[in-house]
Amino acid sequence: MITQATEEHGHPAHLEHHFSTPEQQKSAAKLGMWIFLATEILFFGGLFMAYGAFRYFYPGTFVAAHAYLSIPLGGLNTMILITSSLTMALAVRAAQLGDRKLLVRLLGLTLLLASGFLVVKGFEYSHKLHEGLLPGKYFSAKGIAGLPHIFFGIYFAMTGLHGVHVVAGMIVISWVLIRARQGRYSAEYYTPVENVGLYWHLVDLIWIFLFPLLYLVK
Amino acid sequence: MSASDNGAAPRGAGEGAPRGGRDQEPDPVAGADAPGATEGSYLSHRGVLSWIFTKDHKRIGLMYLVAVLGFFFVGGVLALAVLLELLSSAGRFFSSDTYNKLFTLHGAVMIFLFIIPLVPATLGNFFLPLMIGAKDVAFPKMNLASFHIYVVGAAILLYSIIASAMDTGWTFYTPYSTQTSTAVISATFGVFILGFSSVFTGLNFIVTVHKMRAPGMTWNRMPLFVWAIYATAVIQVLATPILAITLLLLIFERLFEVGIFNPAMGGDPVLYQHFFWFYSHPAVYIMILPGFGIISELITTHSRKRIFGYGAIALSSVAIAVISFLVWGHHMFVSGQSELAAMVFSFLTFAVAVPTAIKVFSWVATLYRGSIAFTTPMLYALAFLFLFTIGGLTGLFLGTLSVDVHLTDTYFVVAHFHYVMMGGTFIAFLGGLHHWWPKMTGKSYSEKWGKIACALVFIGFNVTFFSQFLLGTHGMPRRYHHYLPRFQTLHVLSTVGSQILALGLVIILVYLLHSLFRGARAGVNPWGGKSLEWATATPPGTHNFASQPTVSAGPYEFEEIDEREGEEKDEEKDEAEKGGER
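ok -> structure tokens follow
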């Protein structure tokens, strides 16, 4: 076991003092990220639970109300997010290979796709706003059987919180992008890229569940 | 060894000769530093900013300690106000609205600001890295962020208290919480923020335990306090997100009147209760498990005997963490859930008592033939055994379906809850605080006043809350401002008890503060503990250990008992021979 005195000197710049080795630091960071993802799953798990309960209470409402969601736009967004997951995964690979130029490009592309997702979502939301397909007391559309104010309440809660996560993902991707341009990452040290990648895949994964549950009800 | 040997250990003067192993470098630990090693104490940094932005887990733990105890004072004053009001059956000082706000604020402050962070964020933060021989927690910045978020969340919660208070009770039950005009949105948002602080602490501790252990610190050599904090962290990480989404949905419901919790709009108020208790039942184990961990340390160290059933105690913490997620429905026996669900939840509630009982029996077995020293920390540990057993067993009354129907929403529930939370967690915390105070501050407190205060707390607590058990069985409903005159005697008794309890707590505050300025210097290892935190300087240096410690034995290898084991074996042989004759 090396002593503390030798550790203080001559270690890689990215190694924080309270870790003994870069391997220890990396595995700690990854475990931390996985635990964080577990909290996210439980967080959305609560929403899925609410969805399940109300779909069980009012199946007719869900069938009637889901018809007012646009499957082409939802499908387009699904394609966009899955593609962004691919570019993110390729970005991690670029980081592993130490290819800085490719890493920056792929992160930029991921960011672009994420913005695309939000633009499409924005169109969908403004359409809903226009039609009065809104949660709770703001719901004003006519002609939908059952309790559509609850369906749209759940729709906006789920997609809204997912949207917040997309924005958060864009912020951390931008942060990694800036640091990648500064040349902070190398084939030896790319943990933040990998962790941001894991987070982005989770954001993607949640949408992959949201899309069929909300748009493709039968 | 060094000058610190001259400092009087917290053990009282009348205690007889100091035990062996005191201030000696424990054998199982190689490379631990002597006091006065090259590095300065962690307290040697000066200036407010050096505290506010410190990444040192020890200083973050101390800041948490001050903050948490500050909120305990706020919650305690509210409790005393509630009990003073209950002196007369028709109320005297407050309107009924004010009374509703008082008990709501008492609950919200005590639960979310005090007892959830009480042990993990203070003693856990301070001692978890020390006990596993790490320089710090895995993510020091996140640890600091956890504290800052805690302060922000607390500020928002306190703002809502000052702005317009709340009268929903700390559970924010719908549909009332979506209808009352009080500050539910800002209060629940404050609690939402506090959840991040709790998750950050838990996440940090899990990774720290997995990745930061010193060489030789195997899972089976971890102190039981570390096991308990680890199990707590798992619950914190997995349960708190559910509270977060519950509170967001409640805020959403209030802002948009979505109707998901409102039966008039097709919603389901029982769904809210499911959501809420899915977090809040595991949360009571967030509160009590660290207390269990402290008790394991106190009992074994102060009876100088290896813990009985190390593996059983360690794994029962994990078992409790798992089962705690499956019992939430016992809060809803009269809320209209199905009979089948109620029966399953009742059964699982009994199941969670098993690992808890394993711990209690193991502690008692540890005491058997131990060399018990009646130090202040040990007195708290014994008080805990007594109080927590009452609290735990009355929990079984409430888990029994037929009995629960009568006891639901009575003072029996209030008394049960306070016996496990205050008689359990808080008493364990006080024991741990006295146990580790010399290590944390480098100062010894008055053992005499420690014992007097412990006796007052014990008596005051029992008088306050045992009378509430009696009130509950006689049918006194909880949260009522006015009550029938026949309950008055017991209410007066309870109020008197609360004053004794408060007196005891004030004495503790006084002599602990006094020890900071006037206390004798504490030794490196005043209790002869064998875990790693006793192997470093008092108070510890900034980087915990002057050089990386390595571990070659378990945390509870006490020599004195080892010497005696020879005699015991002889006796056992005698007994075995006698048995053979029979």
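Chain B has 16 helices and two strands.
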